[in-house]
């Protein structure tokens, strides 16, 4: 994963628009505003590759990025609250679920969890969906710079508890801060 080998491929608004399934993919899922796009930028070392913003609902398409010749990084729209009209939100939520259930080449989903909030009901629902489609997923704690160590440990315990109920969950949790660069090399090596 080097800046020079990563580029935007396309934004997809329907399953029919997905690129040919000719290589493996990893995707980044999570509630709106959890830091998916920012994490992709941190991973690739390219500040403005994926568009991030403070407004929940920034990413509204399934965005494909190449990572070398071998695989795709996929930035997903968020789930949960979004600052956009309801019919629009419902449309992209449907697409998100179809993608998570039906993409053959999806090798792993990273489910991002805000270090301040832990696993919420919507996260749990997405995890169940991944269980049922047998997509292995791994939890990534984001914005770790926003909490003190003690609080982080508490949230980590809560996340561990939630993961233990999901057969498709990979047990190891990666703690990150895109802001500080924490956990980025670890996540890069996992990918
Ligand atoms: P949607 O596309 O709306 O679903 O959001 P997203 O999950 O892609 O979140 P995005 O990357 O746009 O980031 C949301 C906000 O969180 C932005 O203002 C980021 O700057 C901020 N943010 C993301 N990661 C971190 C982090 O590690 N630390 C801190 N302090 N802020 C972060
Ligand atoms: Mg985004």
Main traits of this protein?
191 residues; alpha/beta; Rossmann fold; 5 helices; 25% strand; globular; binds guanosine-5'-triphosphate; binds magnesium ion; P-loop_NTPase
Notes on the structure:
Belongs to the TRAFAC class TrmE-Era-EngA-EngB-Septin-like GTPase superfamily. EngB GTPase family. Necessary for normal cell division and for the maintenance of normal septation. One of its GO terms (cellular component) is cytosol. Residues 22-191 form the EngB-type G domain. It is a single chain. This protein has 191 residues and is α/β, with parallel strands linked by helices. The chain has one domain (3-190): P-loop containing nucleotide triphosphate hydrolases (Rossmann fold). Helix content is 31%, strand content 25%. The chain has helices at residues 36-44, 86-102, 121-132, 149-163, 184-190; strands spanning 6-12, 24-30, 62-67, 71-75, 106-114, 137-142, 169-175. Strands 1-3-4-2-5-6-7 form a 7-stranded mixed beta sheet, sandwiched between helices. The chain is globular, with a radius of gyration of 15 Å. Bound molecules: guanosine-5'-triphosphate and magnesium ion. Magnesium ion (MG) binds at residues 36-37, 52, 58-59, 75.
């Amino acid at each position: 994963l080097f800046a020079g080998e990563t580029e935007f491929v396309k934004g997809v608004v329907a399953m029919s628009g997905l690129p040919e399934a000719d290589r493996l993919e990893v995707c980044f899922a999570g509630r709106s505003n959890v830091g998916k796009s920012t994490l992709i930028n941190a991973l690739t070392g390219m500040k403005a590759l994926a568009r991030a913003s403070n407004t929940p609902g920034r990413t509204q398409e399934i965005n494909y990025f190449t990572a070398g010749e071998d695989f795709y990084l996929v930035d997903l729209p968020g789930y949960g609250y979004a600052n956009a009209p309801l019919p629009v939100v419902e449309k992209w939520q449907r697409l998100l679920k179809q993608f998570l259930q039906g993409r053959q080449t999806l090798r792993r989903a990273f489910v991002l969890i805000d270090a301040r909030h832990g696993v919420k009901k919507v996260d749990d629902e997405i995890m169940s969906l991944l269980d049922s489609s047998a997509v292995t997923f791994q939890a990534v704690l984001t914005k770790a710079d926003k909490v003190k160590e003690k609080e982080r440990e508490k949230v980590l315990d809560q996340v561990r508890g939630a993961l233990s109920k999901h057969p498709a969950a990979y047990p190891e949790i990666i703690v990150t801060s895109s802001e500080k660069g924490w956990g980025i090399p670890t996540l890069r090596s996992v990918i």
